[in-house]
Design brief:
This protein has 5 helices and no strands. By secondary structure, it is an all-alpha fold. It has one domain.
Length: about 120
Amino acid sequence: MDVLVLEYGIEVVIIALVSIIIVGLFKVLFRKQLEKIEKSNRKPIYEIASMIVVVALTVVWILIEGGGDAELYATKILASYGAMKVMYPLYENFKIRDLVHLLFELLKEYKKGEE
């Protein structure tokens, strides 16, 4: 995870975490509608929602930073999506509090590495 932060920036980790939270809110807000869909068919919906959220957040972040070429967008989107796929099992298995703690530890290590 620390390689991801050093290579692509903390924004990738933040985008991944915020994406997980947004998709979680989506699941809560649309619970009744989603319960009408067979459980095995919900996973593709969640995956597509995750992809849309990651792409949207990454594009907004890059635009706020001043934009860039198509390669930058593709790289950051793929890195953010990859980070989200790594972080989601942590979110599910260790609860959000533990994940946030891990992120703060990574930030500390990242700051120590800069000194």
